[in-house]
Amino acid sequence: MASIQMPYRLTGRREINSVMNMKRNEILRNAFKVFFPLCAIFSVLVLFSCFTPSPLYGTWSDNLGNKITFSDDNTFTAIIAVERTVIDDDYNVPVTETFSGSFSVAENVLSFSTDYGTIVTEWDIRGSILYLDWTMPQGYSETIKNLQLYHN
Predict the structure, then answer these.
(1) What pLDDT, in 10s, does the model give residues 91-104?
(2) Looking at the chain, which terminus has fewer C-beta neighbours within 10 angstroms, N or C?
(3) CB 99 within 8 A of CB 114
């Protein structure tokens, strides 16, 4: 009789093991269905929380008519008040010049690409004041313009 009952016991255990394996596989599948979307959401949140916008974005100006606007697509527009030397006569004429182009930042070095060439300068923000030196193209009486611009 023991020899007859033994196959039934093994068959019963196999059925129990296969049912348990099926339940375990179902639990694992459900866990992966929840786990992977949560990992994806978490990784997106981590990536976006690490992004820091540039403190330069926006408009900076002073009371002398100087104004620089930095856009988030790395373009800029600058209106610089300068005195232009009239070559025929020996006197300076106050004018405002408009520059536009693209800019790039590497730590505290700011590089402007304009139609007149590239202007490379160091910049610093203390409080809400942007400090930088603007190098003018040839033909201006001021070759370097020290700018102290307030954020608008």
Answers:
(1) 666 778 899 999 99
(2) N
(3) yes
